[in-house]
Amino acid sequence: MRRREFITLVGGAAAVWPLTARAQQPVVGFMSGRAPDDSAHLVAAFQQGLAERGFSEGQNVAIEFRWADGDYDRLPALAADFVGRGVAVLVGVGGDVSAVAATKATKTIPVVFGMGGDPVKAGMVASFKHPGGNVTGFTLWTNETESKRLGLLRELVPGVPLIGILVNPRFRPTVQELEDLELAAKGVNQQLFVGRANNDAELDAALASFEQQRVGAFLVTAAPFFDTRRDRIISFAAQNRLPAIYQFREYAVGGGLISYGPNIAESYKNAGIYVGRILKGEKPADLPVLQPSKFDFVINLKTAKALGLTVPPTLLIEAGEVIE
Prior knowledge:
Rossmann fold, five-stranded parallel sheet, alpha/beta, 44% helix
């Protein structure tokens, strides 16, 4: 059985359980802008966090999963459906759009969100320490570290005349991401070429444009849509012998060259812990918005060798994990 089928089966099981069984258990609504295929480890981390607070799926809590598969327009309807069903806690993860959709959908049901940007600037919470209202969650700061990723890529392949930037124009933080990258590039006289993609056809066209423009390397910005197409992007980089940098460790483990970003599984585990605390009576307003405790810098030396690259010793020293 494929992972997508397994997770869908497990996630949808609560929807067909007898009402008497469900009445004995609180129901958690879990919606994500990502896809089940690329989120199995995140679901496991979330469930582990719940378990640490004494909640086991199918025994004393039910979890219903909904996935947008990178189609952000579906998220408001998913949130509204959960609110209409009266879930005990609504979880909105897998990008800022999911987090915003969840918080806009209800002012009474507790919401635990996960996003890459600043929830205070987005107007979702009053402050990190005291969120207020019915909302709390975590931020990964992935949307705030694009310039850092650009710097690491330039250090890995110095002197590349043109670097491609892959963005999703329908993803809310993209405007700020591009501004940060363009400002950083201007400071070091680096030329950028931007490829835009919000669906499969656009992704194929954007990657083809990197070939046409003869970029020497490319950066994949933080956006859940790209996470759902991770294998395709990594395969393109390998086939075209292009160095690339990504946001999450999962890319480098999956054959990508280099990644820099937060430990996303840790954040999902903490979200599960927060849901467990809320189910036991704590209020979201009293639970501070969580921030990453560390950032993973991963280099895949196998991929570097396949690309004919020599990784500078300074980067090897800085890396927290090296895949050989």
